[in-house]
Design goal:
about 425 residues, five-stranded parallel beta sheet, about 40% helix, 15 helices, alpha/beta
């Protein structure tokens, strides 16, 4: 747990390089502190920091009076926290339309712009987008990367691979530490402070600054805590309402709860997992509600005020938190493949924790378990049931099926299902 890790290149580095070569501008969005600015600085040739306290007011005035002054500079020109002056969007779009070619601008944003009325054009055909998240275990050096999702989708014969064994104690630590770049390599309480302070920043200012609506810090804390308790479930406003009634003194209506959740989504704190809805069962049998997740499991841990020891003492909760960690990593890896992740859940109780999709139509089914023979077998049984249902409906078979685990020293195949520790996975 105290070892020094070696950074790997951010997956976002390659994504940014590719999209700059193909589009006039690239928008990189994501939670604060996930490394957007640092990543983009490495490929920019000129930079303007819109949130610079010494220049912010002047920059905003220039955006109103002579926006082209802000756009002048060597390209790619990085405009950091562009949402502070939303009129930049249309000005950049116009400039791209009138010459200069690809790779002219990089924009970063840690919040959805509050004044979208100042944006006329969608930017289609001019802007590419990258959703950046905290670092995956492969990027932070805690996964050996010996199993590649890209290779599995290529349908080459699977070969057993060695993982970097991670004891449960260390996995609990990695969940609570999170993938925040400044924490990688830190140990003990020093590594956990970042997530704790991140949550305090959300509560005290960020949730109100996103759209200039003053929100109550105590209410924000309670709703964050409720969302954390419901992590990995289909938690709509009604579910949060019921949880708050069971665990808190104060009462809130559904509209208030939803307004707070929407604000948390706008600052990229909450990132729910969409539902996979294939034509497997009768209409209405498949649950279409999104599954509640934070962009990083450390946010949920900090919101609940828990640490690694709490997870080790409650393996059921540990399982939900590990699922959140695995979903974070799968999202990062699938982004690199231009794919996405969803969840399947029907009213009979059959579910699949993660369905991985590629643009070419290929997909894979993944169950996420802490590990151990019993849990792994449970995951395999669920995959067999869903695979059987898929076969009866004539839907193309998945490229692969996998049980993704927290423990284990090797990835191997059993009865056509790959048993793979998260600590050996990469894109």
């Amino acid at each position: 747990m105290g070892r020094q890790v070696k950074y790997r290149n951010r997956i976002a580095d390659d994504m940014l390089r590719l999209k700059l070569s193909a589009m006039g501008a690239v928008l990189v969005e994501g939670a604060k502190w996930c490394g957007k600015t640092t990543t983009c600085e490495q490929q920019a040739r000129s930079i303007i920091y819109m949130a610079d306290p010494a220049m912010r007011s002047e920059y905003q005035k220039l955006a109103e009076i002579d926006v082209n002054t802000l756009l002048a500079g060597k390209t790619p020109r990085l405009i950091d926290e562009w949402q502070d002056a939303p009129q930049l969007w249309d000005a950049i779009r116009f400039k791209i339309d009138h010459g200069g070619g690809d790779g002219q601008f990089i924009l970063t944003g840690s919040a959805v712009p509050p004044n979208t009325d100042k944006i006329v054009h969608s930017g289609t055909g001019r802007f590419a987008r990258i959703k950046m998240r905290p670092m995956s275990l492969w990027e932070s050096g805690e996964s050996s990367g010996t199993v590649s999702l890209s290779a599995l989708f290529s349908e080459n014969p699977f070969q057993p691979a060695e993982a970097r064994p991670i004891p449960l104690e260390e996995m609990a630590f990695l969940i609570c530490r999170g993938g925040w770049p400044q924490t990688i390599g830190r140990t003990g309480e020093r590594a956990l402070i970042t997530a704790q302070e991140y949550v305090e920043g959300i509560i005290e200012s960020d949730i109100s600054r996103v759209d200039n609506v003053l929100r109550n810090p105590d209410r924000t804390r309670r709703i964050l805590r409720s969302c954390a308790r419901l992590q990995g479930t289909m938690a709509n406003a009604t579910a949060i309402h019921k949880d708050l009634e069971s665990n808190e003194i104060q009462r809130y209506d559904d509209d208030t709860i939803q307004a707070y959740v929407n604000a948390l989504k706008k600052i990229f704190v909450i990132e729910d997992l969409g539902a996979w809805c294939p034509s497997l069962r009768a209409k209405g049998a498949i649950r279409t509600t999104d599954t509640r997740f934070f962009v990083d499991p450390s946010i949920a841990a900090a919101a609940m005020g828990i640490g690694p020891g709490n997870l080790l003492n409650d393996l059921r909760s540990f399982g939900f938190f590990f699922e959140a960690l695995a979903v974070r990593d799968l999202r990062v890896y699938m982004d690199a493949l231009r794919g996405h992740v969803e969840k399947y859940h029907d009213k009979s109780g059959l579910e699949c924790d993660a369905v991985l999709h590629l643009p070419n139509g290929k997909y894979a089914l993944v169950e996420i378990k802490l590990g151990g023979e019993t849990l792994v077998q449970t995951g395999m049984d669920a995959l067999d049931k869903l695979d059987s249902l898929i076969g009866r409906k004539g839907i193309p078979k998945p490229s692969f099926r996998m049980v993704l685990t927290a423990t284990g020293g090797f990835a191997y195949s059993q009865n056509g299902i790959i048993i793979c520790p998260l600590s050996c996975l990469r894109s």
